[in-house]
Specification:
The protein starts with a helix and ends in a 12-residue tail after the last helix. Helices cover about 30% and strands about 25% of the residues. By secondary structure, the chain is an alpha/beta fold. The protein binds 2-phosphoglycolic acid. The site of 2-phosphoglycolic acid has 14 residues, from helix 5.
């Protein structure tokens, strides 16, 4: 009975990194239909700020690609979140295969802002190879980066999910670069030992059990079905 009540009303508080905003709202659709009395508060921010929310215990569940190893947290992966190299579709490298990573460091690069998990992953790959990127500008938004790429300002590395709504006429293309895609996952994270609300527990189980299937069922293939990846 108490269980039933917990799922009838209340607020689910989620904090997610910016790459996850391309998937989580879609996953919330069927979940909210199942529990129509539930309200959702969804915070979208970069990795560093989501970690701050986690430390302050501001939300029920946190979604990120790089769970902290210095905090006592419970961590469960639920969906792949690969990073790909994006360029303007008429870029000279667009038709090349197996482009060496080193070649990337010769191109003007558009980088996510400090504090971004995407930035951290890109930086690590190039640091590990002893390569330096020619960063032309820092931008604090995946969408702004996509516009800058379309404007011919340079190439970038973003989550493949940022292409979720790009149709066949997208101005963007995925480059075939050695070492890419960078394979990563999204994790659901919450402080270890925290007693989840009934609704948070239900969403947690939904993500783990049905997240991947619902994400695939509701995804619009667009650019990804063009054989360019
Ligand atoms: P970001 O995080 O929004 O901080 O780049 C994305 C991620 O780590 O997937």
């Amino acid at each position: 009975m108490a269980n039933l009540k917990g799922l009838k009303q209340g607020t689910l508080r989620l904090a997610v990194v910016t790459t996850a905003k391309y998937v989580i709202p879609r996953l919330l659709g069927p979940f909210c239909q199942r529990y129509p009395g539930i309200d959702v508060s969804l915070t979208v921010d970069n990795h560093e700020r989501i970690i701050d929310s986690l430390i302050d215990n501001r939300d029920d569940l946190y979604i990120m690609s790089q769970p902290p190893d210095d905090l006592d947290v419970t961590i469960h992966p639920f969906l792949e979140n690969p990073l790909v190299v994006l360029a303007w579709r008429n870029h000279p490298l667009a038709k090349e295969k197996a482009i060496p990573l080193k070649r990337m460091s010769e191109e003007p690069f558009i980088m996510r802002e400090p504090g971004s998990g995407t930035r951290k992953a890109v930086q690590k790959l190039f640091d590990d190879q002893g390569l330096e990127l020619k960063v032309k500008l820092d931008l604090g938004s995946n969408e702004a980066i996509k516009q800058a790429i379309a404007g011919g300002l340079g190439i970038s590395v973003l989550s493949i999910h940022t292409l979720a709504l790009e149709g066949p006429n997208s101005p963007l293309t995925i480059l075939d670069v050695e070492g890419f895609p960078i394979q990563r996952y999204w994790y659901v994270v919450y402080p270890a030992g925290k007693q989840l609300s009934i609704i948070a527990q239900a969403f947690f189980e939904y993500l783990l059990n049905e997240g991947k299937t619902v994400a695939e069922q509701t995804s619009f293939q667009g650019i990804l079905s063009q054989g360019r990846f």
